[in-house]
Design brief:
Layout lengths: L6 E5 L8 H11 L6 E5 L1 H11 L3 H10 L7 E2 L7 E2 L3 H8 L12 E7 L4 E5 L5 H7 L9 E3 L2 E5 L17 E5 L13 H18 L7 E3 L15 H17 L2 H9 L2
Parallel strand pairs: 1-2, 1-9, 2-5, 9-10
Antiparallel strand pairs: 3-4, 5-6, 5-8, 7-8
Helix pairs in contact: 1-3, 1-7
């Protein structure tokens, strides 16, 4: 890739809402922006891994729509989670057959949370799929993922916009958050209250990193989609794409960045 500036993109977690990242990546590609490095958490790590493998945003969307992720899950009979993620390994192996960071076309950092120390860990070399599974391991829903004797859960628990691996390596950093929370006058029930509280917590650790980004893209109102609302995949993709197009229109600096990298 011919590039005059090193561009890094940080992709947030957010379950199915992470499909918005694909629409944003497509819009950025259309103006000549393709990252030199990607950093992702949870859904952002999944999108990042497939994108860095060399798949186009539309191809990744087709994979997501045509794959029933739930058939790869099975009950976890333990106190640590409801579902096991082991069977998801088979799905990732289909699209990431070499299973190493080094085999990717674009360098990738994956964020996970190590339980015993309560610290963020960034993976960028060696085996790829296990860290990928760890990064999207939602606590309380999935069993923690074990890597080298340590247990990991969703990276978004502590860092849902992992810009840190891009700092010092990239001249321009684009942050993308797919969990914008719209105003809601009346929270109708306890389920909605819990969901809204979790998203507020996730967004807090996103917004504390916002000033580290040269550009920050956040499609509006995506928090209205559920974490597993896969039937809305095409709508979420479109929301990301249209939001990025609007953002590009009003950000001359991003347009110029695309021009110098073509």
């Amino acid at each position: 890739m011919n590039s005059n500036r090193n561009i890094g993109i940080a992709l947030s977690g957010g379950g199915v809402r992470g499909i918005a990242h694909l629409g944003i990546l497509k819009a950025l590609e259309e103006i000549g922006i393709k990252p030199n490095r990607v950093s992702g958490t949870s859904a952002g790590a999944i999108v990042g891994a497939l994108y860095c493998q060399g798949l186009k945003p539309d191809e990744i969307l087709d994979i997501i729509i045509n794959t029933n992720y739930f058939k790869f899950m099975r009950p976890a009979i333990s106190w640590t989670g409801i579902l096991k993620m082991d069977s998801l390994e088979q799905l990732f192996e289909v699209h990431l057959p070499e299973n190493t960071f080094e085999s990717l076309q674009i360098p990738l950092n994956i964020t996970a949370t190590e339980i015993s120390r309560g610290k963020v860990v960034y993976f960028s070399q060696g085996e790829l799929i296990k860290p990928l599974m760890a990064s999207c391991c939602i606590p309380g829903i999935f069993d923690p993922v074990q890597i080298d004797g340590k247990f990991y859960i969703d990276g978004g628990a502590l860092n849902n916009l992992p810009v840190e691996p891009l700092e010092g390596r990239c001249e321009d950093i684009i942050g993308v958050n797919c969990n914008h929370l719209h105003e809601e006058d009346n929270v109708p029930n306890m389920k909605r209250l819990i969901e809204r509280t979790v998203i507020m917590s996730m967004n807090y650790n996103v917004y504390t990193r916002k000033n580290k980004c040269d550009f920050f893209i956040e499609p509006q109102g995506l928090a209205r989609y559920g974490v597993f609302d896969i039937k809305k995949a095409a709508d979420i993709f479109a929301a990301g794409y249209e939001s990025a197009q609007r953002f590009i229109t009003y950000n001359e600096g991003l347009i110029k960045l695309g021009e110098v990298n073509q």
